[in-house]
Amino acid sequence: MPLLRPGRKPVARAMTVILGASVVTVVATQPAHAAEIPAGARSLQSVNMAGSYLRHTDYLGGIAAVGPTSSAQAKSDATFTVTPGLAGGTGCVSFQAANGMWLRHRDYRIRLEANAGTATFLADATFCVRDGSVSGSVRLESTNYPGRFLRHRDSELWLDAPTTNPTTFAADSSFRVTTPWVAGRRSPVIKGLYADPNIAHLNGRYYLYPTTDGYNGWNGSRFTAFSSTDLVNWTHHGTILDLGPQISWADDRAWAPTIAYRNNRYYFYFSAATSIGVATSSSPTGPFTDPLGRPLVPAGFRSGQMIDPHVFTDTDGQSYLYWGNGSAYAVRLNADMVSFDLGQVRAFSLPNYREAAFVFRRNNTYYLTYSVDDTRSENYHVEYATGTSPFGPWNHHGTILSKNLNLGIKGPGHQSVVQAPGSDTWYMAYHRFAIPAGNGTNREVTIDQLRFNADGTIQPVTPTL
Ligand code: FUB
């Protein structure tokens, strides 16, 4: 996000195992069960027009026959990446084509359009999965026009009500989810538009806590969580904190969360309305509640934006809070994890620092990784420094992750790091512009391995697809 110059008042600016170079394709080998479509690359076959698949052509939705001898273009047009619904909702999904555009309804016609980031677009592009007319098939109900379903009519796709052609409607609106005509990429590891991933290993599972992306001005208001045992297959846990009803002092700009565990409780730190809050729960997937009823670090507390919290807990059990856009800050958290000594806040001077400070420890070295440039720039990247304590002093080493235009990878950053338990294997989670057609508010989350040299310095991370 943009840098706010020190001294300027923060403005309420409107502002997605086995890893590495090898590609791991995660696709369903079985049709989905009724009323469910797993995330990932999928094709949808009409139940009453056997051999015809849901596809787009000339930016409009339709159905057409696709078979093994069909052209690569026809197969691609009949393949969609299924993601959690852009507008949220349990059991609701969205469909992204290979060109990055999304299926949405407009004037009741199903079309393929770029994400406009508006609430209307997000709702128009979200469909809730219902049982289909035959076993194993699904129907797709509009999230903002309940009672209307995606159905084919004269080979065109429309958002219709069952009262239209009632004798054929059920079959016209039912599809079997099949293996995709075109295999998907390994990444993004969580399907859909997410950013600022905070990765952690808690209670035997890996967790990802991201910003939900795709909104104009990064204006999301809900936090979600994913978990995995292998860093490949991720379970979506739905909304774990919703600013609107659950946080009294902020309703928007839900960004860049982080998690900590202490005293048998989980502490979820988050940016909201350019302040930092904390919420607690007995479970890593919530529900989380706000014990303070006010920000932990309010906007204007120091120069720069009070966003992008991260908590590092040292081997002695002491936890430290890091945060800041424009300037990097850190402070020891009190044992209650929801307060700190205002007089003990430290500011760090780090070359090129913009945001997303993330600290981890390996052996006796502390690593402070951070993001540089603007998240809307393809040049957004990750640099790091090492120190002998959680407060440094920091020795800058330079860039460890940056764009790879040969692979279409732009703007990789807002990183976090996790150690595979009981090993010296490390991973970095980060976001990049969604591929293809993404930008600084349409980002996606991936994970690559983080490797060290014998002297403890970090090798450049190889971004993979
Ligand atoms: O996602 C919103 C903002 O963009 C984050 O707080 C920044 O770190 C940048 O990734």
From TrEMBL:
The active site is at D196, E355. It comes from the Bacteria. InterPro entries: AbfB_ABD, AbfB_ABD_sf, Glyco_hydro_43, Glyco_hydro_beta-prop_sf, Glycosyl_Hydrlase_43_Enz. Residues 1-34 form the signal peptide. One of its GO terms (molecular function) is alpha-L-arabinofuranosidase activity. The record marks D308 as: Important for catalytic activity, responsible for pKa modulation of the active site Glu and correct orientation of both the proton donor and substrate. GO terms for biological process: L-arabinose metabolic process; xylan catabolic process. Transmembrane segments: none annotated. Residues 43-177 form the Alpha-L-arabinofuranosidase B arabinose-binding domain. Coiled coil: none annotated. Keywords: Carbohydrate metabolism, Glycosidase, Hydrolase, Polysaccharide degradation, Signal, Xylan degradation. Belongs to the glycosyl hydrolase 43 family. This is Alpha-L-arabinofuranosidase B (ABFB) domain-containing protein. It comes from Micromonospora phaseoli.
